[in-house]
Amino acid sequence: MFDLTTPDGFIETRNNNKAVVLFEHVSAKFLGFKIDPKLLQFNLKSILAQLGLDAALDHVEIDFGLKKIRAHVEFIPRCPLGVELLAILEKGAYVGKLFAKDPDRLVLKPDYLVRMFERSDRHGHPLLSFKERFDLQVINGQLIGFIPLLEGKVLYKESIHGLLPTIAVALERKISLRHLLQLHQKRDSSLPRIVQENEILLVKTEPLYIRTVFARVKNELLPPGYIHTEASILEPTTRNSGDIYEFFGKSNQPLEQIPLEFYVLEPYKEYVFFSDRDKLQALLANDQNVFEAFKNAPGLKSNKAATFVVSSKQMQNLNAKDWIVKDYFIESIPTVEMSPSDSIMIQNYILNQPETYFLNRIDWEEFTSEGVLFCRHFPTYFLKRLFLSDRTKKQIKRLYFQFASRSSDQFFTHEDRTFMIDLYRLGIEIHWVDLVTKKCLQFIERLGRYTGMFVPKEHVQEFLKATFFGVYGSNLKGSDFEQELTLLLKGILEMRASCSHPLLNPTTQIALVTGGGPGVMEVGNRAAKSLGILSCANIVDFSLKTGGYVNEQAINTFIDAKMTYRIDKLVERQAEFYLDFPIFLEGGIGTDFEYSLEEVRRKVNSVPPYPVILFGSPHYWEMKITNRFTINLQSGTIKGSEWISNCFYVVENHKEAIEVYRRFFSDTLPIGPNFPPYEKGFVRGCDLSRTCDLGTT
């Protein structure tokens, strides 16, 4: 149903020409409940008007509580055939609808309709189509379309009289017989289109396909002497409407065209494309507008809430009533390990998600406009099937959320992240309305990595084109390295201007990734931020867990882009760093793990043999690395992989590190399986500098 119309009403009582028509089960959204009753029109069924019967609405009785409306209507025969039909019209016959002529819904400008020409719905059916584009004019501030008529007029065969009793019975049983009516009609193209007293003038046009608006015959713009019957509303519920019109009156002037005014549908049902919503896109481009939208979400932070926004007017007037809010016991949440016998619980869980309401209506084609989905929490992966259906994935253009989940606030599950990749690859933008950074961050996949981060919109292209450096190290130390690390990053930026390597040249960008915590991580993010380098972090939830011990790690405040992880997926988080050029500072067990992972990556060739910088004294790194490397070497357990040692460079200052990078980017660094290993498991940067001074490699 549409909010401008009621369901069909039936004759409840009748006294001669006057009747009470009852409309039941009227939607609470019907605008007739809100606007002046004088703006209501009784729209007679077209089949009745074509047979010469007209109607006039006297007044209505509205019962909002029971969602009923009684319309007091007078039936008016306009020709002898109409008199014959009225005589057999019985109580219970469904005779028409109420239409709300809301002036706020009038189409004012041609662009609204013009953009629909030559466009189709998801089934390939045209949204607005006519054999030739009809004339559109703005008259008295509103849009009028003039539909040209075919030659001649429509007459009835004598056999029509035998069909009338069948039509009367069909109206009582809500059976449409319009297609049968056409069998008793014929168009005589030689007859002039002139209306005479005591007759109905039936005229034809080419079929008008109109799915995006209601159209109404504008009697005020007809030639003098012509009046259209009350069956004057063209509904957007058929792909072949608006091809026959019924007039009465008296005139010697031939009728040439039909003037139509247009009423927009409710936003969800307009078939409007997101690309056409310039004002909505402009509102969404301002982060403050998005944050304000979420302030209107009712309920507590723990309550799941969602709304679907398809127009700028809707977003500007968003209030608590526009949101669907759900709450349920945390124990009812299913897990991915559940057995098929738990499918009922899973289905109930899905039905209790606020997003399900909108996803279902899109899938059922009740909602036809493209738009953006606002969710208080990132949607559960159990909704993946609904999100990725052929219909839904085309209509939801963006997803905005505030929290990763009810239970874990900022931290995503592994399933969440794979769900994000699926949505991203299907063209659904994902935006985190982040209360920490106070920005809207957009999820961007790292090319070829099947992982991604939430990035400020202004840095998206920078992120996509970036070469990724990264800093590993202790959350307990860091201040000793800040100056040297800052100078190193500054040197890389300077080197980029004159370098021609695919990973470092004037067209590439630089990004730096850390674990997002304090200590060395904060040093790295702060240094990057100070130099205008994109500062990123893969942040894990290190809140204390029963049975273990870890220093609580507050997230540092120098982060631009981020991804978050729950503690149970610590290994997956580490695997998703995908650094081009890792930099290690002093660290403990976590750093040892990260170091080992970088070793393994090079051994199995999941990353090329790019250099790894180890900042600090050679003695420190010798204690960390050499003994383990020597044992593996002597036992033969790294046979064939000894060369891994030439990928790790211990440097005591930024100059030595810059020299390593200078050689690598100029292809003069002896690194990889074609070059010899180093007995300590690493190369000293100062030794490399001396060989450079001697002019040897």
Q: What can you tell me about this protein's structure?
A:
With 697 residues, the protein is an alpha/beta fold. Among the domains are: 9-265, no CATH class; 271-445, Cytidine Deaminase, domain 2 (3-Layer(aba) Sandwich), CATH 3.40.140. It is 27% helix and 26% strand. The chain contains 21 helices and 33 strands. The strands form 7 sheets. Strands 29-28-27-26-30-31-32-33 form an 8-stranded parallel beta sheet, with helices on both faces. The longest helix is centred in the C-terminal third of the chain and has 18 residues, at 618-635. The protein is elongated. Residues 692-697 have low confidence and may be disordered.
Largest sheet: 8 strands, parallel
> Treating each run of at least 4 consecutive H or I residues as one helix, how many helices?
21
Q: What is the structural class?
A: alpha/beta
Q: What is the terminal separation in angstroms?
A: 79 Å
Quick one: how many beta strands? 33
User: Spans with pLDDT under 50 lasting ≥5 residues?
Assistant: 692-697
Radius of gyration equals 36 Å
> If you average the pLDDT, what whole number results?
90
The residue fraction in helices comes out at: 25-40%
Coarse morphology:
elongated
Strand line-up of the largest beta sheet: 29-28-27-26-30-31-32-33
The proportion of strand residues reads 25-35%
